[in-house]
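Folding problem:
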Amino acid sequence: MAEMTFWDHLDDLRRVLFRVCGVWLVLLLGFFIAMPSIFDSVILAPCHNNFVFYSFLHQIGNVFHLSDEFFTQQFEVKLININLAAPFFIHISTAFWMSVVVSVPYLLFEVWGFIEPALYENEKRNVRTALGIGTIMFFLGVLLGYFMVYPLTLRFLSTYQLSAEISNQISLDSYIDNFMMLILMMGLVFELPLVTWLLAKMGIVTKAFLRKYRRHAIVIIFVVAAVITPTGDPFTLSVVAIPLCLLYEMSILIIKDKPREITE
């Protein structure tokens, strides 16, 4: 096979970018057309008491006869809009971000196809593993954020009262900003094992280093969890902190021990 020139690589990259943009534009158009029904059934679903996670909490309360409000609360949020152009721009931005998230696997597939010919066999295995794990972990984080973390955060913040004279009215802008930010943040947080693995490959961190500072990491994880979900109950904190601790332990497991240097 003839060696490709710089311009050949550039031409391949151009075709990759065209294909990625084409797939993304198709997804964007599809989400834009379907957005009214998606908005009601998916994005606004955590606003209603019949959301799957709230129903799960109610079932736990019924099974274990728990009377705490956390397991029995009937929850409903009504959003308001005070900006004339907000619905239109939120329609576009939500379709944009959803198309970006859904197109991630195809983007990684194209990236793999572009860089594969330049890699050695051992490098191919490493990159293939990194792309596969990264994609799976990102979507696991997004799902956890959507089904657990955001509903718990919404329920706490929307019912929190600084004063009895102040009624909480949540704007559409505020709801969408927090929805997108928190769910995407959870997706990125779940990339921790991949980032750690890459740092280990570059020699920046080691298995011994992660083990040594495990207790410090756990404290930081709980602080981060408290910031992400500013609720007062241990259950909500644990929903975020425990998966992050498990991710840290997974990071330790996937890093291979370096062979000891032979001393003279």
